[in-house]
Amino acid sequence: MISKKDFKKISDWLWEIPKGFRADMRVPARVYLSEKMLEEAFRDRSIEQLINVSTLPGIQKYALAMPDMHEGYSSPIGGVAAIDTKEGIISPGMCVSGDTRVLHPLGYSLPIKEFEKRKVEEISCFEIENRKIEKTEIFKFFKIHVNPVIFKLKTKTGREIKATGDHPFYTPLGMRPLKDLKAGEKIAIYPFEGVHYEKPPEKVLVDEKKIKEKWKLLGQNPAGHGLQQIINQLKKRNLLPLKTTSPKFPYLLKIMGYLLGDGVLILTKNRGDVCFYGRKEDLEEIRKDIKRIGFGVTRVLSRKRNHRIKTSYRLYEFSVKEHSVRSGSSSFALLLWALGIPRGNKANQEWILPSWLFELTLWQKRLFLAGLFGAELSAPKTITGHGFNFNAPFFGMNKNEKFIKSGKKVLKQLKELLKEFGINATKIICRKDCVRENGKTSWRLRLFFASSPENLLNLWSKIGYEYHKEKQFLGNLAVHFIRAKQKFIQEKSLKKGIKSRKGLIKFRESQLGSLLALIKKGGRNLARPFVGQFPTFEEFVKLATEGLGKSGIVWDEIETIEKIPFKDYVYDFTVSHRSHNFIANNFVVSNCGYDVNCGVRLLISNFTEKEIRPYLEQLANEIYKEVPSGLGRGRQLKFSIPELDKILEGGVPYLVEQGYGEKEDIENCEARGKLAWADAKEVSTHAKNRGRDQVGTLGSGNHFLEIQKVAEIFDEEVANAFGLFKDQAVIMVHCGSRGLGHQVCSDYLREFIPLMFNKYKIKVPDREFACVPFNSPEGKRYFSAMAAAANYAWANRQMITHFVRKAWKNVLGNRGGKLTLLYDVAHNIIKIEKYNIDGKEKEVAVHRKGATRAFPPGHPEIPEKYRSVGQPVIIPGSMGTASYILVGTKEAEEAFYSTCHGSGRTMSRHAAIRSLSGREIINQLERKGIVVKCYSLKGIAEEAPQAYKNVDEVVEVVHNAGLSKKVAKLLPLAVIKGE
C-alpha cells in the first residue's frame, strides 16, 4: 500500500517515489502536487499506475504526473513518459478491455474475469431438454493460462467470442468443440443482451418509520399488536429496512412493474391482498418470485368471466377464462404501498411512478420496466401484409376521464426512463375506449415507440419482457431478424443495389457509411428487400428456431473462425445445472475456458464582454446549431474515404487549402496542424467509417465549446504578445479525434496484446499495458496511425472553427470583425523530441497522456510571433469554471516541456450521474448569467464542476513549479456541451 511517507519531497510542488521503491522500477516516479493534493492522491490507482509506467522498457529520467492526474487505463491521465526510440516501446494505452460477458438471470451482464472477485452465485443457462432459459448456480470458478493461440469466432449477425479450441458450443449436433466448427455451420445464440452491471449506491427506501406512517393512514391503531406483527414479518424476511442493495429488491422491482400493469393492490383496515392476472405459465414465474421474496401465494386460480363493453362502434358481449394468483399477506401489501404502488383501481385515481426509481442503476430500472412491459407493452408484430418491418410498439394504460392528466404524467415519466436505454418514445395518444357496466367512460392512453431498427433493437435486446414468455420469445426473434436483415441488405446492396421508394439505389464500398445510415433508419426508407430472397418474419421464426422451441435461443451462421496469438488467462465455470452450459457474449457454451488526440484551441475577438452580452443567447444558439455535439453525432457534411485519407495525412493545411480556414490558422497550430509521418493506410476502414461524418463535431464526455471573457491578466507583456486584453470575448474549443481516434486505439490494442507476450516477450506489471518495440514494424504502423488520428483531431477543431466563424458572422455580420486563432495545442499525443539526457542528446518518444506541451521562449517549433515569450498553453477548466492561458518556460525542460491539461476528475461519470442533478447544475450556471446549451441532462451531470478538481489549484501548482507561467484567467459566458 503506497502512502505519503513513501514520497521524497523535492520542493513544495514536486514529490518523488525513488527508483528503489520497487525492484522493477527503471526510473523514479515524480508527481507535481501541493501537499494538500498529495493527501488526496490516494483515492484512486493513479500513483500505482505511475509507478508501473516507471518500469517500461526504454523510459528516460522519470515517470511524470501532472497535478490534474487521475486513474486511467493502464497509466494515469495527466502522465508524461519519454521513451527511447531505439530501445523503448510504444503503447496505445487508453482503450477498453474486450472481456467476454456472462448473462445473469436478472438481465445484466458481467465480464467473466470479474467473477473471480465478485460473489455472484447464479448465471443464466439453456435448459436443453425442455428448451427454456433457466438459472444455474455456479459450482466452481477457475482460470487457466493459455499459450500460444486461441480462436476467434464471428457470426453472420456480428456476434463475436474468443475461446480455446476445445471449448464446446451448442450446435444442431449438440455441444461441439470450437476447433471442429467451420464457416457456414449453425450455432446457437441468445439475442437478448440486457445491460451492464453497476453496483447500486445504497439507499434506504422503506424503514420502520415509513411503515408506521402508512399504517396510521389506514386508520389503524399505531399502538396495537397488528403493526408490530407486520414489522416483525418484514424484518424476518430481511425486508426492513429495505435498501436498494437488498438481495430481494430486484425481485420486488419486477413484481412492482407487472403489478402496475396487470395487477391490483388491495389494502384496507381489514384486508391486504396483492393480485396478479395473466397467462398460466407467466403467473407461475410470478409465484416463484413472490416465494423467493418470502411471502405465501395461491396456486394459479382460473375462472370464467362474462364481459359487456360498449364502445363508440358497438356493444360487445363475450366470455373469457381468467387466470390469477393472489398473496393475502398484509405485510407484503403494506410494503408495496410504502414503495409507491397505488391501492385499488389504478384507472380511477391519481398516481405517478415513485421518485426513487429514477435514482437506481440501469439494470435495476430495466427490471421494473421489463415487468411493466410484460404486462402492458404490445408484442413485436410485423406490419399487416408486409412481413418485413415491425409496427411501432406501444404501451397502454386505461384511465377514467377525471384522471387522464395523471396518466399522461406516468407516460412522460416512462419516456424519460427509456431515454437512458437509447429508446425513443415518440408520442402519446388518448382516445375514448368504452363505457363500462357501471356507466363510466374509460379512456385508453398509449405511448408509442419509434419503429426504427435501432430503436427496436434497444427496446427488445436491452429491456425486453419479464413475466410474459410469448412476448419474450418474439422479442428475441425480432432482434435476431432485424440484425440478420440489416446484414443481408448491406451485402446485397453493395453488389446489386437496394430497393427504395425512389427506385434502385446502388452503393460502392466507399459509400458504406451512407448505406449503414440508411439501414439504421429502416422503416419506410426501405421497401421489402429482395422479396423472395429474404424470408418474412413469420418464415424466419420457423427457420431460426428449428428444434429450439420457444426458448428464445436462435440459430445463427458462423461467418469466420480464425486463430489469433494469445498468452494469458482464460476463464470458466463449472455449473450445477444438468445442461452444463451458460450464456456468454450471447453464445450458448459448455464448461471450458475463454476470455479473452484530444486538444484545445482559443479564438480571440475584438469584442468586449459588454459588447457581446446583448448577442450572447443568439450567438450560443447559432453555434449550437452549426456545431453538432454529442456521442455519435455527426454532421451532414460527410467525406468519402479518399477525401478522409487526405484529411488524415494533410490535417489543418489540407482543410485550409479547401477553404475551411486561413493560412494564419496553420501557423498558430502545434506542429502546424499536421504530423508529417501520418499514413492513412494504417487506419482501419472501420475507424474511417466512424470518422467520415464527424469532422467538425464536438463529441461527448468532457468536450465543450465556450464563449468566455478574459477576467484577469497576470502578465501584461505576454498577454499583449498573445493579443489578449481585459474583458475580451474569446471562444474556446475542447475536443479530439472522436470515434476514429478511439477505434485506432482499439484496433492496435487488440493487435499489441498477443504480440507483446508471444513475439517480443515484453514483461509489464499490468496486463492493461499493450506495447511493442517502438522501432518494430507494428510500432511504426501504430505511430503512423496515431499521427493520422492526431491530424484528424486538429482538422476536427479546424472545421469547428470554420462553423463557429460562420455562426459569429450570421449573428454579428461584418461588425463582428475577425475571430483569430491564438493557438491550438494537443494534450493526448506521442511525438518525437530531443533532450539532453545524462550529458548526451537523445531522441525520445514523449507520451503525453492528458498533458500539454509547453515549449520555452526561443524554441524553433513555436510560431515566430510568440517565439520571444514562449508557447501559448491553453488549460480548459471543468464546465462553468475558470480556464487559463499560460506560457511555456525554460524550467519545464525537467518535465520534457510538459504541463497540466485541465482540472482532472475526482468522480467517475457514473458516480456523477447518480449523485448530481443535470437540471440543478444548469440552474446554478444560469443564475451566474452563463448560457447553457446541451443535448442531455445526463451529459451535464457527468461533467459537473463537482466531479473535477479545482482548476485554480491545479494551475497554481504548475505555475509555482515553473512548468508554465500564468498569463490570463478566463471565465465562461456561454457553455455548449457534448452529450
Pick out its properties.
alpha+beta, Endonuclease - Pi-scei, Chain A, domain 1, Endonuclease I-creI, 8-stranded mixed sheet, 7-stranded mixed sheet, 25 helices, 44 strands, 28% strand, globular
Describe this structure in words.
The protein has 979 residues and is of the alpha+beta class. The chain has three domains: 101-190 and 553-590, Hedgehog/Intein (Hint) domain (Endonuclease - Pi-scei, Chain A, domain 1), CATH 2.170.16; 204-457, Roll (Endonuclease I-creI); 599-977, tRNA-splicing ligase RtcB (Alpha-Beta Complex). Helices cover 31% and strands 28% of the residues. The strands form 13 sheets. Strands 32, 33, 34, 36, 40, 41, 43 and 44 form an eight-stranded mixed β-sheet that branches. A hairpin with a 4-residue loop joins strand 19 (263-267) and strand 20. Helix 11 (469-495) packs antiparallel against helix 12. The longest helix is centred in the last third of the chain and has 36 residues, at 777-812. The two termini are 37 Å apart. The model is unreliable at 93-98, 592-596 and 630-634 (pLDDT under 50).
CATH level 4 superfamily of the largest domain = tRNA-splicing ligase RtcB
Which spans of ≥5 residues are poorly predicted at pLDDT below 50? Answer: 93-98, 592-596, 630-634
The tally of beta strands, per DSSP, is 44
* Rg calc: 31 Å
Number of domains: 3
CATH topology of the largest domain: tRNA-splicing ligase RtcB
Structural class: alpha+beta
Residue-averaged pLDDT, rounded? 87
Ends distance: 37 Å
CATH architectural category of the largest domain: Alpha-Beta Complex
Please give the count of helices.
25
Strand content: 25-35%
CATH class of the largest domain: Alpha Beta
Helix content: 25-40%
Largest sheet: 8 strands, mixed
Taken from the alpha-carbon principal axes, the silhouette is globular
